[in-house]
Amino acid sequence: MKKKRRLKKWVKITIAVMLIGGFGLCINKINNKNEYKSNIIKEELVFYQESKTENTVEKESKNVVISNENEQKVEENIQKDADFEQKIEQNKKTFRLTSFYPSESGNCTGSGKCSWDFQTNDKGWYTWNGKLFLAAATTYLQKSFGYVEGKKYFKYYDEVNVTIDGNTYRGVILDSCGACMKVTYEERLDLFVNSSQNTIDRGYKGNNSIYVEW
């Protein structure tokens, strides 16, 4: 029978050392791999956090810009409202209101409209298309009467709101008024009425004046 060969002790030790070394190397490789993965994860987390921070800052910056734009729009709207109100005030004055009727001035007017073109309301005032018939200082008479700085001059078919005794009416300028052109200390409108029984006078010496907006 053949005798079994026994490994020498130093061989066994060498093999054991090699096995342990190889196992340790494998462990190191695994640890290195895990560490590499861990580092990648950490880097991704850092990148995510930085990106999130940048996005937050960018959003906050955009919000600030939007907020500033909204504030600017609000300020612009306030300024527009103020300008509009100022314009309304500039286009609103107190006037004296007088009247005239066909038998003293004739039936036809500067605009070419005549008394038979008009209707009469319940006060005996002439209207045209539902608007009060008015005569005023006009640009057409400036050659004859001159121009006064600050005085309001109308043109035919200009429309105005007139407030008489607390009631507001829509009116239209259809004639020129010589007396309105001459007077320099007040603004004046003339209302066309159907007879002397329906004449009206408001604002004499500043009393109970009418308001006119155009």
Q: In brief, what are we looking at here?
A:
With about 210 residues, the protein is α+β, with helices and mostly antiparallel strands.
Q: Could you characterize the architecture of this molecule?
A:
- With 214 residues, the protein is α+β, with helices and mostly antiparallel strands.
- It has two domains: 10-90; 93-213, Barwin-like endoglucanases (Beta Barrel), CATH 2.40.40.
- The chain is built from four helices and eight strands.
- It has a six-stranded mixed barrel with strand order 1-7-4-6-5-8.
- The N and C termini lie far apart (137 Å).
- The model has no long low-confidence stretch (mean pLDDT 81).
Keywords:
21% strand, Barwin-like endoglucanases, alpha+beta, six-stranded mixed β-barrel, single chain, 2 domains, 214 residues
Topology:
Elements: H1 9-90, E1 92-100, H2 102-105, E2 119-120, E3 126-128, E4 131-136, H3 142-145, E5 159-164, E6 167-176, H4 178-182, E7 188-192, E8 210-213
Parallel strand pairs: 1-7, 4-6
Antiparallel strand pairs: 1-8, 2-3, 3-4, 4-7, 5-6, 5-8
The SSE string, one letter per element, is: HEHEEEHEEHEE
CATH architecture of the largest domain: Beta Barrel
Weakly predicted, low-confidence segments:
none
Portion of residues in beta strands equals: 15-25%
For the record, the count of structural domains works out to 2
